[in-house]
Structures are given as C-alpha cells and as structure tokens.
Amino acid sequence: MTESPENLSIAVWRGDDSGGGYEQFDVPARQNQTVLDVVSWIQQHTDPSLTYRFACRVGMCGSCAMMVNGEPRWTCRTHVKTVLKGNRLEVGPLRNLPVIKDLATDMDPFFDKWVASEGAHHPTRTRHDPIAPVDPTEGNRVEANEGIECINCAVCYSACDTVTGNPDYLGPAALQRAWTLFNDTKDANRGAILDAVSGSGGCHNCHSQGSCSHYCPNELNPMKAIAGLKRASATRFFRRSS
C-alpha cells in the first residue's frame, strides 16, 4: 500500500463477555502500517475508550494477539496490506477466552490450564546443589528445545476448534509445555505430567487438525508435542496393563 489519503474501513468489536458488536471506524491508510497501528490510531484519535492490550510492539511478548478477519494473529507483526480485503478489515478479541472489554481478553483460563497440565518445573536439585550439565545434542533435550520459544500468546489456544467445542480441554500451549518438561532431564516427576495430561481434558481430546501449528507466530509445532504425549501416555497405560 502506498501513501494515500484513502481511508480504511475498520470494524472493531466493542463490548464485553456479556455481549457487544462491531463498530465501524475510518482510519487513514499509511504505508507499512500494522493492525496494531490501526487499533492504536482509533484509540488515540477517534475513541479513547477503546480497550486493547499490547506491550513490546516487536513480536516478543505476544500480548497484542487479536482476531484479524477471523484469524488469530499478533497485530504488531501483521501488516495491514497482507490481510486487507478491499479496503476493509475486521478486528476482534481472541476467541475461546472471556472478553474483559473490547479487544482485551481474560487470560486466566489459559494460564489455569497451563498450571493444570503440570506446567511448573519439578526440580531434581536445590539451589544449593551444583548445576547439572545439559547435553544439547541429547535426544530428549532436542525434543524439549522445540517448544521452549512459546511465549504464551494464546494464538494457538484461540485457533483450536477442540477448545471451542470442549472448554475443559487443556489446549495446545499447555500441552506443549507439558511435553517440554516431560523431555527435560532436570524434571523430577514425569509421572505427574502424564497423569495431568491423560485425563478427560487432556491430550487424547486433540483431533490433530493442526490449527495450532499453522497459526503459531513462532512457527512451533504443538500438534507434534501433543502426539508425543499421546504416545507416552498410551505406552505407560499398556505397560501397566501387561
């Protein structure tokens, strides 16, 4: 898009978890503007009551994630020209999460599931013990490394149709965290992790549609991690049954 006096027609969701609707705004088209730039322009120049969340603006924190034309994205890294339909754009809050107000969602359910999946490290040593060496080429360490760049932006959680249909499902990010710890040789309780992810809302609910991996802005592969948990929990089940 080149510099132009032409306006963009932006539909922004307004309301909270009890209800709301889309409101139209005209925003000047600018070269290289992002979706977050558009939302910020509306808040700064048209309606200061518009509520949204952002922090770093450079794709490191993930807090600016929203639905853009029906798809979850980091708005700070999404250029308008790549998603514009005609001169129109629709911006809404992440789905599968309660809406606090307008574009800001309540992240508590997301992080509660992260905790429920045993996402906290179970230490094998105390702070008084020497640090155990880690071999970066060891198989489990390589597997664990694949998921450590998750920044908990909830894009995968919002993209997941299984979460939509089953609110008890732990979701891709929580399960990926569980798989990371399961493969961490410094974690002391792999059994607790498998117990946590094998229940009614656990990894076996995943339909392997792959939306989580498709939309992950960091190009991680939660579906692969979930498949690993399925194998590990099934292997443990049959070993116990034999």
If you had to describe this structure to a student in words, what would you say it looks like?
With 242 residues, this protein is α+β, with helices and mostly antiparallel strands. Helix content is 35%, strand content 16%. The chain contains 10 helices and 7 strands. Helix 3 runs parallel beside helix 7 (172-182), helix 7 packs antiparallel against helix 8 and helix 7 (172-182) packs across helix 10 (222-241).
Helix content: 25-40%
Mean pLDDT: 94
Low-confidence stretches: none
Q: Which class of the largest domain in CATH terms?
A: Mainly Alpha
Give me some keywords for this one:
7 strands; Fumarate Reductase Iron-sulfur Protein, Chain B, domain 2; 2 domains; alpha+beta; 5-stranded mixed β-sheet; single chain; Ubiquitin-like (UB roll); 10 helices
Q: What can be said about this structure in brief?
A:
The chain is α+β, with helices and mostly antiparallel strands.
Question: What does the secondary structure layout of this molecule look like, with pairings?
Answer:
Blueprint lengths: L6 E10 L2 E10 L6 H11 L19 E4 L2 E4 L5 H4 L4 E5 L6 E3 L2 E2 L2 H9 L22 H7 L9 H5 L1 H5 L6 H11 L7 H8 L13 H5 L6 H20 L1
Parallel strand pairs: 1-5
Antiparallel strand pairs: 1-2, 3-4, 3-5, 6-7
Helix pairs in contact: 3-7, 7-8, 7-10
